[in-house]
Amino acid sequence: MSHLFHHGHRALQDRFDGRRVADALEARRRVAAFQPEHVAMIEAAPFFFLATAAEGAVDCSFKGGPPGFVRVTGPAELEWPDYDGNSMYLSLGNIALSPPIGMLFLPMDGRSLRLRLRGRAALVEDAARIAAIPGAQRLVRVAVTDIFPNCPRYIPGFGQATPSPYLPGPDGSAPAPEWKGRDYIRPLLPKDDPHRQ
User: Where in the sequence does UniProt note compositional bias of the Basic and acidic residues kind (predicted)?
Assistant: First the structure.
């Protein structure tokens, strides 16, 4: 019984004689709980990629924040703050209807550990916990079911990037992105948007 592979994966593995390799990789590389090197990598990451899907709406998003914005909260659990966004709620709307997600942590040095995670996400709206994280509007908690490395073969080395100037400061404030000032958006911003004029 495989944790990683469904019948679609198996059909292609069998067609192209890959099942033995796939089974060996799952047996030797997949884990169900974070190892110390996983925690260190996740909690130092300034971004990750998030995959969600619901009702045929598939989405892949870049999620960024200051290093440490994603916190490992249990042996196979993590959470991150949701910051001010574009009011479309593509990822969070998918999570609300369909909790299974995928996450990819990918340092851009071409050498470091890279992780794929699968799990079930839930929105957390605990006001006290949210208030403790500058700029957070809500939290996303993930019960992680699969932890496995991502192959580095085709990942380019981009070196160290500078942090986004739009990250929330210690008081939770952040500069307004250009798109919020557009005449067709500015009057439509949510009533509690920090950049509404």
Answer: 179-197
Contact 71, 78 (CB under 8 A): yes
93 in any annotated domain: yes
Domain holding 62, by residue range, is 34-150
The whole-model pTM stands at 0.88
Q: Provide CB contacts within 8 A for 193, sequence distance 6+.
A: 84, 87, 180
Residue 17 counted as domain residue: no
Tell me: the pLDDT tens digits for 88-109?
999 999 999 999 999 999 887 6
Q: Does residue 120 lie in a domain region?
A: yes
Could you give the number of structural domains in the chain?
A: 1
By the 10 Å C-beta count (0-12 exposed, 13-18 middle, 19+ buried), 7 is classed as exposed
User: Which conformational region is residue 89 in: left (phi greater than 0), alpha (psi within -120 to 50 degrees), or beta?
Assistant: left
- Residues whose CB is less than 8 angstroms from the CB of residue 81 and which lie 6 or more positions away in sequence, other chains included: 65, 69, 130, 133, 135, 136, 137, 138, 139, 140
